[in-house]
Amino acid sequence: GVAGGPDGLDFDRPAFGGVPFEREGFETALLWLTLALAVIAGWLVMRYFASVNGQAMAAIKTNETRLEYLGISAKRVFWGGYVLSAALCGLGGSVFALTQGLVTPEMGYWVRSGEIVFIAILGGSGHALGAFIGAFVFEFVKLYAAALLTGAWQLVLGLVLIAMVFLAPHGIFGIVERWMGRGRDRRVVEASA
Question: How far, in Å, are 3, 60, 109, 136 from residue 105 at the CA level?
């Protein structure tokens, strides 16, 4: 009675700004809304990475104890990162619910979160553009692998993941960054610090 049966929650098409749209107009408006939200969220994430808390989050990967000696609470930094992550997940989930019109229990299954981890490894987690690049490449490889190798497309994705872990541990954006020369300049600054 609450969820509408075993198919999950069903949503009616909402109105944008009080104006109801037919399906085509709704999908176009949703596309532009999603694009704007993605750009804004990416910009905010990059601002967070450049902030003191973002730099502290990056420092936790290297040495959490050293961060505590500097007087920065690692627990507080983790909480800030978790809150930002939860807000972005909520935003993504709400846009997904609007797009699909249906939310099923399978969306909370571990395979979905595994895809997100795969995208982060593929694109690189050091920059917000890595998520966009990783999502594009993941969907591209998944689409063509499923079309060409119907029964073994997961094997292709697994091989791509293994290759990325060994050949490009910083993801595709790390490769692009290295090509652009920024990686070399950043290593020089980190070594001098």
Answer: 11, 34, 7, 25
Number of H helices, E strands in the chain: 9, 2
Global confidence as pTM: 0.70
Considering only CA atoms, give the Rg of the chain. Answer: 20
Residue pLDDT, tens place only, 116-128: 888 888 888 778 8
The candidate with the shortest Cα–Cα distance to 124, out of 6, 47, 10, 45, is: 45
Distance of CA 188 to the CA centre of its chain: 29
Per-residue pLDDT at 86 = 92
- Any idea which residue has 């997940």 for tokens? 89
Q: Phi then psi for 143, rounded to 5 degrees?
A: -65, -50
Tell me the Ramachandran region of residue 51: left when phi exceeds 0, alpha when psi lies from -120 to 50, beta otherwise. Answer: beta
Query: CA-CA distance, 31 to 27, in Å (whole number)?
Result: 6
Distance CA 119, CA 186 (A): 24
